[in-house]
Amino acid sequence: MPAPASATADEIRSVNASYHDGAAAGYDAKWGIDYGEVGREQVLGKVRKALGGLPSFGRSLEIGAGTGYFSLNMLQAGVVADAVCTDISLGMLDALEANARRLDVEVDTIVCDAEQLPFEDESFDLVFGHAVLHHLPDLDRAFGEFRRVLRPGGRLFFAGEPSRYGDRIADVPKRAALYAAPLWRALLRASPARNGHRDGGEDNHRLEAYVDVHAFTPDQLGALARRGGFEDVRVRGEELLANWFGWTNRVLEASADPDEVPWAWKVYAFRGYLALQEVDRRLLEPRLPPAIFYNLIVSATKPF
Known about the structure:
Number of helices: 10
Order of helices and strands: HHEHEHEEHEHHHEHHE
Radius of gyration: 19 Å
Oligomer: single chain
Largest sheet: 7 strands, mixed
């Protein structure tokens, strides 16, 4: 459920900061975020899709960096040399810094609003984000800031943005899994989960319903970048079968006490998801219209 239409920009920012502060401690576990070989390849695969290859950059700026999934994996892979990570949530950036220390990676973090970036003009070679644009109340203002802080010829990409039609299609397996969850738990002999157990408690979990502002069509996402003054704008879709499979399993697993979900099930869900990602990447993403996929990726270049 998106934020209500009556919500002001300040209210949207406030609920996003509050929810993500509360969810930060369990965020990596909730979403299966990994900083090893598998997680790194997941991130690099999305970078390749966005940029048509795997270039290297001097200084990068991540918008809505969360716990560091993209920037920390990109630093480890040598895609970026110097990373600055921003987020509206201090709790998320605290978790990111803890991850960076554990990985022995250096990164700068700044709590700020994406629509008012505290950086000098033309100070970054790459501006990017993952699953963040749909949280921002004023996207035109944000894209203006992205262009301002990029150097001429600098690259921009945002991945993991919800597709309006893909999200509606994905609602079918989500609802089916919700109805099937009691039987699934009975077969696995798993107890029901406590509500909000991975979101910082039940009260914080309720806020999740109000943090999303947008879902996009490919044309809308491309138009945002063009209005922001970018060129070479490209939008592609990713994940169809993998998304249906992944959401079905995620809804089932979220209904159960995580300590009681058998390891064999988790292995099946993980390997099945990776296998269907390959089917999507090799067969479906090059052939089907971006609008039907669950996620959209937009990439662009700042003119010289």
